[in-house]
Design brief:
The complex is a heterodimer of chains A (about 350) and B (about 1000).
Chain A: H1 4-15, E1 33-37, E2 45-51, E3 67-79, E4 90-97, H2 107-125, E5 136-138, E6 142-154, H3 159-173, E7 175-176, E8 179-183, H4 188-198, E9 216-221, E10 229-230, E11 241-248, E12 251-253, H5 258-263, E13 266-274, E14 281-290, H6 296-326
Parallel strand pairs in A: 4-6
Antiparallel strand pairs in A: 1-2, 2-3, 3-6, 5-6, 7-10, 8-9, 11-12, 11-13, 13-14
Chain B: E1 4-6, H1 11-17, E2 18-24, E3 30-36, E4 76-80, H2 82-87, H3 89-93, E5 101-104, H4 105-114, H5 116-127, E6 133-136, H6 154-177, E7 189-193, H7 197-206, E8 210-211, H8 213-218, H9 223-229, H10 235-238, H11 242-246, H12 258-267, E9 270-278, E10 281-287, E11 296-299, H13 301-304, E12 312-317, H14 333-336, H15 351-369, E13 381-389, E14 394-399, E15 415-421, E16 429-433, H16 436-439, E17 442-450, E18 459-468, H17 472-482, H18 492-495, E19 521-523, E20 529-532, E21 541-547, E22 553-560, H19 562-565, H20 571-579, E23 583-585, E24 588-590, H21 595-601, E25 609-619, E26 625-636, E27 639-642, H22 643-651, H23 658-679, E28 690-693, E29 704-707, H24 712-735, E30 741-744, H25 754-764, H26 773-782, H27 791-802, E31 807-810, H28 839-851, H29 864-901, E32 911-921, E33 924-929, E34 934-939, E35 945-947, E36 952-956, E37 962-966, E38 970-979, E39 986-994
Parallel strand pairs in B: 4-7, 5-6, 7-8, 11-13, 16-18, 19-26, 20-27
Antiparallel strand pairs in B: 2-3, 9-10, 9-12, 10-11, 12-13, 14-15, 14-17, 15-16, 17-18, 21-22, 22-25, 23-24, 25-26, 28-29, 30-31, 32-33, 32-38, 33-34, 35-36, 36-37, 38-39
Helix pairs in contact in B: 4-5, 17-29, 23-24, 24-28
Classes of the chains: A alpha+beta (about 350), B alpha+beta (about 1000).
Keywords (chain B): Cytoplasm, Exonuclease, Exosome, Hydrolase, Nuclease, Nucleus, RNA-binding, rRNA processing
Protein name (chain B): Ribosomal RNA-processing protein 44
Main location (chain B): cytoplasm
C-alpha cells in the first residue's frame, strides 16, 4: 500500500508536462508483451502472456516479474439433449490467481478477486455473439463444452489486458477434434414398405415428418492423431481484446504497473472485437473500476480512444500468432546423419 | 506499435518426442493422451558380432543371416510388415520357416492394436527357442523414429516407418561388414516382406529389397508344404486380380461399418449377441439377444450373412408380421450341396452352382410355403447386418473327396477343395492346397481366413494334419482341439512347484512345529475308507462314521488337501486356473494338476498317511445336523473300495468289523439325507450315461457299451459330498460375503418347458407342473406308463434338457435371492469335494482354510472381480470338458457298434435296437436309443405326412395303409456306422425297422 504522499507524487508526475512514469514510458506506451502458445501439451489450446518484467528483452529486466497469465482451453463432450438454447455448445470460463501473485491479499480477498476476474471473462467470452459456430457434434444431442481456465501467475499491474490477451491467444491455439456423426438408418426399402402399408394420406406431406430428422446417435473421431480444426468465431470477428484506460483526469494512460494502479482512482475497461480485416469493430463490453467519478460525456471520446489502442494491440497480436501458426504444420525433420 | 515477441521451445523438438492423440472413452468422452518418448542412439540391431551396437545378451540374429533361399545366396534377414503377422501367422509359426526375423516395434504395436490373440501368439513366437526373432525398437532410435506428416494416414506413417527401419538396417549392415571392400558383394540382405503392392512400389523407388510373402516362400526349400500355410487373405485383397473383379456379384449383403453397428445397438435399433448355428439345418441359425426372451431366428444364407458359430454378431429384427417359426425339416448341407464346385469364384457361375442355389432356394421356399405358424411358435426373425467380433479358431475338418478335381487325383498341383468341419455347427471351408490327395482320409486342422461377400463359402488354409481319421490318436487330438481342451504336457516352471521329494514325499512325523502339522488334527486312527468307481486313481474323498456315546453319530468327509501343495499365485496355480478342470475322455484323462499330485500325493490312497481337509458333523440318528466343524487333518485311509465292493461288503451279514459297520452307518444316514432332500423338492434328473468297456488299455479291440448302474453306495457317497458342499458353502459365504466361490443352478424359465408340456399333454394326457422344483419332481414321478417302463426316464431326460446348466459364481456379484441350487433344492451350494480335478474346489479350500483361521486368505480371493474372472474361465472349461467327454463316448459307441456289427468273417451284421421318438421333423424323426445313450436321426426317403400340432408323422405304406409314429413311441431302428465316402467321417445312420421299414 502506498502512502497518500506517494500516490499524490505519482499522480502529479503523470500530469506533469511532459508526463513522467517510473520506467520512463510515455502515457500510451505498453511494456513489452511476450506470448507463448501451446504451453500445456495436454490442453486443446493454451497460451501464456507476460507483460513487462524481463519479457520484453532477453537481457534486461533483472528480476522484475511483470504480469503473467496462463490460459488453457480444454474441450469436453457435453450432453445437450435437454438444453433450451438448442445445444450449440458453450464456453465456461474460470480464473484463479496464484496466492504468490497477491501476497498482500488474504484468502477471502483473493477469492473475491478471482470471482471478479471470472465474472468479467465469463460474461465477455460466454456471450452468445462470440460462441464458436463449430462446437456442435451431433445436433441437439452432443456438443463441445470449452473450458477456458486462466491462472494469474504474477501481477504487476494491468492484469485484465493480460488476461484477455492470453485468452484470445489460447482460443486461437485451440483445435477441436474432428468428429463424424454415426447414424443408423434402418433398411430403407423395408421401412418404406411399411409406410406405404399404413396408407396415411398425411404421410410425407406432414410437417412433423420425422424421417428428415437426423438420427445420429453417436459420433466417432475421424482421426485419432489429428489435433483438429480451429475454432470458428461467428461473423468473422476476433476474440475480444481488452484495453484498460487508467483515468487521471483530464488524462488517461495505458498499461499501469501495480504502483500506478494504486495511485489511480478510476479505471475504464473496454473490450473490443474486430473483424479479421479490421474494417468492423464491436464494443463487446466495458467496466468502470475504482471509486472515482467519470462524467458521462467523457465516456464517448474515451471509447473512441480505446478502440484505436485496442486495434493496435489486436494487430500486433495477430501478426505474431499468424506467423506462429504457419510454423505449426509438421515438417520432416531430416534425421541428422550422425553415422558419417 | 506494441512490440510482441514469441518465446517457446523449438517446435521441431516437441514433434519428435511427443505423440499426442485423442481417445474416445466408453462413456463417450474424448480424452487427449500425450506420450513423451526419449530417442536414443544405442538401440541395438540384434545382429551378433555387430561392431557398432553395444552387445546385448539373449538371442541375437546370426551374423550372416538365414541361408537356404534361392534368391539370397549371401544370407538374408526378413523384416515382415504388420499384415504378414495378421494374415500369415500360421506360416510364421511353421518350423520350416527358419530365417532370422527382425520384428519392428511399429509392427508389434500395430498387431497388438488389431488383434490381441495374434499379439499373444506373436509374443510366444518371439520367445520360442527354435525361432530367431529380434525385436528392434525402431521408434526409440533417433535415426529410425518416425513423425507423422501432415495429412498422412496412420497406416501410411507405419509403412513409412517400416521402410525407414529397413533402410537403416541396410546401411547399418554395410557399415558393419562393408569396411572390407571384398565383403561388399556378399552382404546379407534385409528383406522387407509385405503383401501391399503399393508399399512395394515405394520400396523399389527407395531401393529397399522387398518381396511378397508368396514369392518369398516359393524360393524356399520346403515351398510346397509352406505354401499351404499361406492364408487366403493375403494377396488378392491388395492386388485384385482381374478374374475376381470381373467375377460374380456379391452373394451376401455387405456389413455395416463398425461404428454404425455400435450406434445402432446403443440406440436399440439393432441387437447384439452370439451366433448359434442350427445343427439340423445349415440354412438356419439364431442369436440370443437381451431384448427378447426368445432367440432371434435367422433363416437362409443371406440373412445369416457369413456368421460362423460363436461370432458376436449384430442383427436387425424385422417387423413382427414377418416373424417366423423355426423350420421343422432337416436340411443337410452335404446332400444339398453335394456337387458344388470349390472353384466357383474363379470361373463363370456354371450349372453346378446354379443347381446348388436352386436346391437351396427350394428348401427355403418349402419352408415359407407352410401355413402361417401359430403365433406362439413364432420367434423374432431378422438378419445379420454386421460382425462385432469373429471367434474363428482352427477347426478339425475332413477333405471332401468329391471336391477334388478328378484329373488331378495324384498330382501335386494347387487346387481348391472343400473341408467339412467335424462340428455340425460350421459351414464347409474352401481351401487351396497342393497336398489334397495325401490329405484325403485324414483329420486336418483348418483355419478360416476370410469370408467375402462374393464367396459362398469361407476361405481358409491348411494348418496341419492330425492323422488318419478313426485312428485313436487323431480322434483324441481332434476332440481336444475341437473343445479347446489344453492338453500340452506341464512345463518346467509348473513342475518346479511340486515338492522336491517327488514320489518319495510322505507326511512328516508328527511334530507341532513342523509347518505340515501346524494346526492339523491327527485323525490317523479313525476308520476311514474311500469309495470310488473302479480304476479310480485320483481319490479325492474319503469317509468315516462312528457312534458317539450320546447316541448321536459322528460322520466325517475327508477331502485331499490340494491347497497345501498348490499355493496361490505360482505357475502351477495359474495353469490349474487356466485348465479349470480335469477332462475325462473314454481312454484318456487330461489332468488339471500334474499327475504326481493327482494320483499320488493328494490321492487319498489306502494305508498311507495323507493330508486332508475334513468336515466332521455330529448328526442325530434322524440325520439332523447338531454341529459341524472343519479342520485340516492327517488321515490314513484303511481301504479303497469300488462302489460294488462296498455294496457287497455292506450287504454281507457275516461282516461285523468296524469298517463295514461304518459303511452301514453312513448308508443309513445317507438314506435319510436323501429323503430330506427329496422332501425339500430336489429333482431326480436323468441323463443318458453309458459306460464303455475297454478290453484292455493297449488295444482298441472289441469293446462293449452298457448303461451305468446306480448302486446304493453311489448314492451314499453322493449324499455326503452334497452335505459337505452345502456346509462349506454356508461357512465361506458367512465369512466372505463379497467373494465366496459358490455354485448355483438357476430355475429354468417356464417357457423352456412349454414344448415338453404340450407334447406330454397331447400324446399322453399328462400334465407337468413346473411352478417349482418340488412340483416338477412330483409331477415327474407321476409320468409313468405301466406298459412302458423306460418312459419315465425318457421324460426325465427331456426335462433335464429344458433346464439351464449350473454355474460357479462369486457371492458378491449376484443378488442373495439367486444363490439357490434348483436341482438340489438347496439355498446355497459350492464345490469343495474334488479339488484334484476341479479348480473351483481349490478356491473353496483356500477360502475355508481362511474362514477357520488356518491360513490368511490370498489377496486375490478377496477381490470380487478376480474371483469372477477366474470362475468365468472355469465355467467355460467345465462346459467344454463335458462336451468333450460326451463326444468321446459317442466316438467309442460308434466303434463298439462297428465291432458289434461286424461278423466273424468281417461281413457287416445289422444292429437293431429299441429307440424312442423324441422329436418329429417334416422329413424325419429324432430318436433316442437308451441302451447306447445315443441320439440319432431317421430320415425318410419317401413323402410323409407331418402333423406339427400333434407331433406325429404318418408314413404311407405301399399297400395303401398308413402308419403313424408319434413322439414317445417305441420304435426299432437299425443302426449302422457308415463311413461317408466323401469325407471319411464315420456317421451313425439309423433306419426305422419297426413299425415300418423305411430302408427302401
Amino acid at each position: 500500500m502506498l502512502s497518500k504522499s506517494e500516490k499524490s507524487y505519482i499522480r502529479t508526475s503523470l500530469l506533469s508536462e511532459p508526463p513522467l512514469r517510473a520506467d520512463g514510458r510515455s502515457l500510451l506506451d505498453f511494456r513489452g508483451v511476450a506470448v507463448e502458445l501451446g504451453v500445456t501439451a495436454l490442453a486443446n489450446g493454451s497460451a501464456r502472456v507476460r507483460i513487462g518484467g524481463d519479457a520484453g528483452s532477453e537481457s534486461g529486466g533483472g528480476g522484475v516479474c511483470g504480469t503473467e497469465v496462463l490460459v488453457a482451453v480444454k474441450v469436453e463432450v457435453e450432453d445437450v439433449s435437454g438444453s433450451v438454447d438448442g445445444g450449440k455448445g458453450r464456453m465456461a470460463c474460470n480464473v484463479s490467481c496464484s496466492p504468490a501473485a497477491y501476497p498482500s491479499l488474504t484468502m477471502l480477498q483473493l477469492d473475491d478477486f478471482q470471482s471478479d476476474l471470472t465474472s468479467i471473462l465469463d460474461t465477455t467470452l460466454g456471450c452468445s455473439s462470440l460462441c464458436p459456430t463449430n462446437l456442435s457434434i451431433i445436433p441437439r444431442k452432443k456438443a463441445w463444452l470449452l473450458h477456458v481456465d486462466a491462472l494469474v501467475l504474477a501481477d504487476d499491474g494491468n492484469v485484465y489486458d493480460a488476461l484477455f490477451l492470453a485468452a484470445a491467444a489460447a482460443l486461437h491455439d485451440t483445435r477441436i477434434p474432428r468428429t463424424r456423426p454415426i447414424e443408423y438408418r434402418p433398411n430403407n426399402a423395408r421401412s418404406q414398405a411399411s409406410a406405404d402399408a399404413s396408407d396415411d394420406p398425411m404421410d410425407g406431406a406432414s410437417g412433423l415428418d420425422t424421417h428428415a430428422m437426423p438420427k445420429a446417435t453417436d459420433f466417432e473421431l475421424m482421426d485419432y492423431w489429428d489435433e483438429g480444426e480451429p475454432l470458428v468465431c461467428p461473423n468473422g470477428m476476433s476474440w475480444p481484446i481488452c484495453v484498460t484506460l487508467n483515468l487521471v483526469p483530464p488524462l488517461f494512460y495505458l498499461d499501469a504497473t501495480t504502483v500506478e494502479e494504486d495511485a489511480t482512482l478510476t479505471r475504464l475497461l473496454l473490450l473490443y472485437s474486430f473483424s479479421t480485416n479490421s474494417s468492423n469493430t464491436r464494443l463487446q463490453g466495458m467496466r468502470l473500476l475504482g471509486h472515482g467519478e467519470v462524467e458521462a460525456n467523457l465516456i464517448k471520446p474515451l471509447i473512441r480512444e480505446g478502440e484505436k489502442h485496442a486495434k493496435h494491440l489486436n494487430q500486433s497480436l495477430f501478426a505474431k500468432l499468424k506467423s506462429e501458426l504457419t510454423k505449426r504444420i509438421p515438417q520432416i525433420v531430416p534425421s541428422t546423419k550422425r553415422n558419417k | 506499435m506494441v512490440e510482441i515477441t514469441i518465446r517457446k521451445r523449438p517446435h521441431a523438438e516437441a514433434v519428435a518426442t511427443q505423440r499426442k492423440f485423442f481417445k474416445k472413452t466408453a462413456r463417450g468422452k474424448v480424452v487427449k493422451v500425450l506420450r513423451e518418448r526419449y530417442l536414443r542412439e544405442d538401440v541395438p540391431c540384434g545382429i551378433s558380432h555387430c561392431t557398432i551396437c553395444p552387445g546385448m545378451p539373449g538371442t541375437t540374429l546370426p551374423t550372416s543371416g538365414g541361408q537356404g533361399h534361392k534368391s539370397y545366396p549371401h544370407g538374408h534377414f526378413i523384416l515382415p510388415d504388420t499384415n504378414v503377422f495378421l494374415h500369415q501367422m500360421d506360416l510364421m509359426e511353421a518350423s520350416q520357416l527358419n530365417a532370422p526375423v527382425i520384428l519392428l516395434q511399429t509392427v508389434l504395436e500395430e498387431v497388438r492394436h488389431r488383434s490381441l490373440p495374434l499379439y499373444n501368439r506373436l509374443r510366444a513366437l518371439v520367445k520360442a527357442e527354435d525361432k530367431q526373432f529380434w525385436v528392434y525398437y525402431n521408434e526409440f532410435r533417433s535415426e529410425t523414429a518416425c513423425i507423422r506428416l501432415d495429412g498422412e494416414t496412420p497406416n501410411d506413417r507405419n509403412d513409412r516407418s517400416i521402410r525407414k527401419a529397413s533402410d537403416w538396417y541396410k546401411s547399418h549392415i554395410s557399415q558393419v561388414f562393408g569396411r572390407n571392400p571384398q565383403n561388399i558383394s556378399t552382404l546379407p540382405t534385409v528383406l522387407l516382406l509385405t503383401d501391399d503392392a503399393a508399399n512395394r512400389k515405394f520400396c523399389d523407388a527407395e531401393g529397399i529389397p522387398n518381396s511378397s510373402v508368396r514369392k518369398y516362400v516359393e524360393g524356399l526349400k520346403d515351398a510346397t508344404s509352406l505354401l499351404d500355410l499361406l492364408s487366403a487373405a493375403g494377396e488378392t485383397e491388395i492386388e485384385p486380380t482381374a478374374a475376381l473383379v470381373a467375377g460374380r456379384g456379391a452373394l451376401y449383403p455387405e456389413y455395416m461399418p463398425q461404428a454404425n453397428l455400435v450406434a445402432g445397438v446403443k440406440a436399440g435399433h439393432l441387437h447384439q449377441g452370439h451366433f448359434n448355428a442350427n445343427p439340423y439345418n445349415y440354412l438356419e441359425g439364431n442369436v440370443t439377444v437381451p431384448a427378447h426372451t426368445k432367440p432371434v431366428l435367422l433363416i437362409g444364407r443371406e440373412h445369416m450373412n457369413r456368421a460362423v458359430q460363436g461370432d458376436v454378431v449384430v442383427v436387425e429384427i424385422f417387423d413382427e408380421k414377418e416373424w417366423k417359426a423355426p423350420a421343422d425339416a432337416v436340411v443337410d448341407q452335404e446332400t444339398t450341396l453335394k456337387n458344388d464346385d470349390p472353384d466357383e469364384s474363379e470361373e463363370e457361375p456354371d450349372d453346378e452352382n446354379a443347381l446348388a442355389e436352386e436346391r437351396e432356394r427350394r428348401a427355403l421356399v418349402r419352408e415359407n410355403a407352410r401355413k402361417q405358424p401359430a403365433s406362439s411358435e413364432r420367434q423374432p426373425t431378422g438378419r445379420v447386418v454386421g460382425i462385432i467380433k469373429r471367434n474363428w479358431r482352427a477347426y478339425v475338418c475332413h477333405i471332401d473327396s468329391t471336391s477334388l478335381a478328378s484329373s488331378s487325383a495324384t498330382s501335386l498341383s494347387l487346387q481348391s477343395v472343400f473341408a467339412t468341419p467335424v462340428s455340425r455347427f460350421l459351414p464347409r471351408i474352401r481351401l487351396r492346397t497342393r497336398q489334397a490327395p495325401t490329405l484325403i482320409g485324414q483329420k486336418i486342422l483348418v483355419t478360416i481366413d476370410r469370408w467375402d461377400a462374393t464367396s459362398r463359402y469361407p476361405e481358409g488354409h491348411f494348418v496341419r494334419a492330425l492323422g488318419r481319421a478313426e485312428s485313436k490318436e487323431a480322434e483324441q487330438e481332434s476332440l481336444m482341439l475341437e473343445f479347446e481342451v489344453p492338453y500340452r504336457p506341464f512345463g518346467k516352471a509348473i513342475l518346479d512347484c511340486l515338492p522336491p521329494e517327488g514320489e518319495q514325499w510322505v507326511v512328516p512325523p508328527k511334530d507341532p512345529n513342523n509347518p505340515a502339522w501346524r494346526n492339523r488334527e491327527d485323525l490317523r486312527d479313525k476308520v476311514i475308507c474311500s469309495i470310488d468307481p473302479p480304476g479310480c486313481q485320483d481319490i479325492d474323498d474319503a469317509l468315516h462314521a462312528t457312534m458317539l456315546p450320546n447316541g448321536n453319530i459322528e460322520a466325517g468327509v475327508h477331502i485331499a488337501d490340494v491347497s497345501y501343495f498348490v499355493l496361490p499365485d505360482n505357475p502351477m496355480d495359474a495353469e490349474a486356473a487356466a485348465r479349470g478342470t480335469t477332462v475325462y475322455l473314454v481312454d484318456k484323462r487330461i489332468d488339471m494338476l500334474p499327475a504326481l499330485l493327482g494320483t499320488n500325493l493328494c490321492s487319498l490312497r489306502p494305508h498311507v498317511e495323507r493330508l486332508a481337509f475334513s468336515v466332521i458333523w455330529e448328526l442325530t440318528p434322524d440325520a439332523q445336523i447338531v454341529n459341524v466343524r472343519f479342520t485340516k487333518s492327517v488321515i490314513a485311509s484303511k481301504s479303497a473300495f469300488t462302489y460294488e465292493e462296498a455294496q457287497i461288503r455292506k450287504d454281507d451279514p457275516h461282516r461285523q468289523d468296524e469298517l463295514t459297520q461304518g459303511i452301514r452307518l453312513l448308508n443309513s444316514i445317507a438314506i435319510k439325507l436323501r429323503q430330506q432332500r427329496m422332501d425339500a423338492g430336489a429333482l431326480n434328473l436323468a441323463s443318458p450315461e453309458v459306460k464303455i468297456h475297454l478290453d484292455s488299455a493297449e488295444t482298441s479291440g472289441p469293446i462293449d457299451v452298457e448303461q451305468k448302474q446306480m448302486l446304493e453306495t453311489n448314492s451314499l457317497v453322493e449324499e455326503f459330498m452334497l452335505l459337505a458342499n452345502i456346509s462349506v458353502a454356508k461357512k465361506i459365504q458367512e465369512t466372505f460375503p463379497q467373494s465366496a466361490v459358490l455354485r448355483r443352478h438357476l430355475p429354468p424359465p417356464k417357457t423352456n418347458f412349454e414344448k415338453l408340456q404340450d407334447i406330454l399333454l397331447k400324446r399322453k394326457g399328462m400334465k407337468l407342473d413346473v411352478s417349482s422344483s418340488g412340483a416338477l419332481a412330483a409331477s415327474l414321478d407321476k409320468c409313468v406308463d405301466s406298459a412302458f417302463p423306460a418312459f419315465n426316464t425318457l421324460v426325465r431326460i427331456m426335462a433335464t434338457r429344458c433346464m439351464l446348466s449350473a454355474e460357479y459364481f462369486c457371492s458378491g456379484s449376484v443378488g442373495r435371492d439367486t444363490f439357490g441350487h434348483y436341482g438340489l433344492a438347496s439355498p446355497i451350494y459350492t464345490h469343495f469335494t474334488s479339488p484334484i480335478r476341479r479348480y473351483a474346489d481349490v478356491l473353496a479350500h483356500r477360502q475355508l482354510a481362511a474362514a477357520i483361521n488356518y491360513a490368511s486368505l490370498h489377496a486375490t480371493l478377496h477381490s470380487k472381480t478376480h474371483v469372477e474372472q477366474v470362475l468365468s474361465v472355469v465355467n467355460r472349461r467345465h462346459r467344454m470338458a463335458q462336451m468333450a467327454s460326451r463326444a468321446s463316448v459317442e466316438f467309442y459307441v460308434g466303434l463298439a457298434l462297428k465291432s458289434r456289427g461286424a461278423d466273424k468273417d468281417g461281413k457287416p451284421k445289422e444292429v437293431q435296437e429299441e429307440a424312442f421318438v423324441i422329436r418329429t421333423f417334416r422329413n424325419g424323426l429324432g430318436v433316442f436309443v437308451s441302451k447306447l445313450g445315443l441320439e440319432g436321426l431317421v430320415l425318410f426317403k419317401r413323402e410323409i405326412k407331418f402333423d406339427a400340432e400333434n407331433y406325429t408323422v404318418t408314413v404311407p405304406q405301399p399297400k395303401g395303409k398308413e402308419v403313424t409314429v408319434a413322439v414317445f413311441d417305441k420304435v426299432t431302428v437299425r443302426i449302422t456306422v457308415e463311413k461317408d465316402r466323401n469325407t471319411q467321417r464315420g456317421v451313425v445312420k439309423m433306419v426305422l425297422v419297426e413299425p415300418v421299414d423305411t430302408s427302401t
